[in-house]
Specification:
This is glucose-6-phosphate 1-epimerase. The protein is mainly beta. Helices cover 7% and strands 44% of the residues. It has a single domain, classed as Beta-galactosidase, Chain A, domain 5 (Distorted Sandwich).
């Protein structure tokens, strides 16, 4: 068992109010290391009739949090499961400062995906996008025109990424479809062998069976004035996929 304040490795950690080391807080901020409460009376969200089961959670800063990051907020999270197993996470963050101060933050749904073999996986939807390469001092590059494949460590922030990205797992004949709203960027990460060996909570060869594709707001922090609320959403679904002469059959996954 992992005891707070140690983060879990896996699942969908929520990076707030800081992504990575972009600030003076602990890596990825404190929200992922906190116990959230059930939100019994959340402000209404538009109801999707396909959603049969959901839970509303809320996080407010503790006194210790306020010492580290002196801003009052309400962070509401709805976790919803659709009939076909589709998962959606909707984050709503409100500035509740009473002294008139705005605040700014970076954010990510640090989503871990289980894959059969990282060298057989391709990511479609980020072709020709600009990205910041965290392994090259956040230098800006432009992705080539082909689907992304993995042959070494990858740690990139794709900017102004499309609202739909597909992770195609050739061996599993399965495609994960990631949809996002309110989150302009998409982080793609795999630590590969050297970094995997250096991480205490990560098996030496586990990098072969995982990939992070993370809807995020990293390049441009989000700023909220008192009383303002931001909403960001992540949707995940898994669809069967098959290859036909090397091409993905359900291209409609991305464009449909």
């Amino acid at each position: 068992a992992i005891k707070p304040p140690k983060p879990f490795r896996g699942g969908i950690p929520i990076c707030f109010p800081q992504f990575g080391t972009q600030g003076n807080l602990e890596q990825h901020g404190f929200a992922r290391n906190r116990l959230w409460a059930i939100d019994d009376n959340p402000p209404p969200l538009p109801v999707n009739p396909a959603i049969k089961a959901f839970v509303d959670l809320i996080l407010k800063p503790s006194e210790d949090d306020l010492k580290m990051w002196p801003h009052s907020f309400e962070f509401r999270l709805r976790i919803a499961l659709g009939a076909g197993g589709d998962l959606s996470l909707t984050s709503r963050i409100r500035n509740t400062n009473t002294d008139g101060r705005p605040f700014s933050y970076t954010f990510a749904f640090h989503t871990y995906f289980s894959v059969s073999d990282i060298s057989e996986v391709r990511v479609e939807g980020l072709e020709t996008m600009d990205y910041l390469d965290n392994m090259k001092g956040k230098e800006r590059f432009t992705e080539q025109g082909d689907a992304i494949v993995f042959e070494s460590e990858v740690d990139k922030v794709y900017l102004a990424a499309p609202s739909k990205v597909a992770i195609i797992d050739h061996d599993m004949r399965r495609t994960f479809v990631v949809t996002k709203e309110g989150l302009p960027d998409a982080v793609v990460w795999n630590p590969w062998d050297k970094k995997a060996k250096a991480m205490q909570d990560f098996g030496d060869s586990e990098y072969k069976h995982m990939l992070c594709v993370e809807p995020a707001a990293v390049e441009k922090p989000i700023t909220l004035k008192p009383g303002e609320e931001w909403k960001g959403r992540l949707g995940l679904s898994a669809v069967p996929s098959s290859y036909c002469s090397g091409q993905l059959d359900p291209l409609k996954v991305l464009h449909g």
